[in-house]
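Changelog-adjacent note: as of this version, every example in the card shows the full chain rather than a window. The one below runs 171 residues end to end.
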Amino acid sequence: MVLAAQQALWFELMQFYIREAWLLDERKFKDWLDLFTEDVLYFMPRRKNVLRRELHREVTPLGDLAILEEDKRYLEMRVARLETGMAWAEDPPSRTRHLIGNLEVTLQENGEVEARTAFLVYRSHLETDHQLLAGCREDVLRNVDGAWKVARRTILLDANVLLDKNLSVFL
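Full-length structure tokens:
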């Protein structure tokens, strides 16, 4: 019985992540924002090359210099800016393909879920500008009025240096 419940939760959350990927790839950013709680933390720390004995320093902690450290209001501002036509890095808009997999799910005692996914995001812009971003996301999901929402997302890129001109897509 427990295994069936775990499998049902995994299936439900995999559908959640597939839907999120399609929303991003179809540029339905306002609908994508609805997948987040009002108190969300959207965090992408920097990753450093360190010796094995210093692996505890590989990822910068919250409050240290990060690539992204955003709340819901800031995410809404980024989405609104895309719609103004003033986001020159996204005019014409990028084409993206988000591939999500390797979902691991852990139900917490408070009803929240810790979920970890691997991702590949392909971005194509203009004629020759393209990039491939790989990494994992560590999410805390909360059930709000019968729907799962991301309460915290930590994005860990596999690369420690971003060579692209900008990071204007959502991961």
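Structural remarks: DSSP finds three helices and six strands in the chain.
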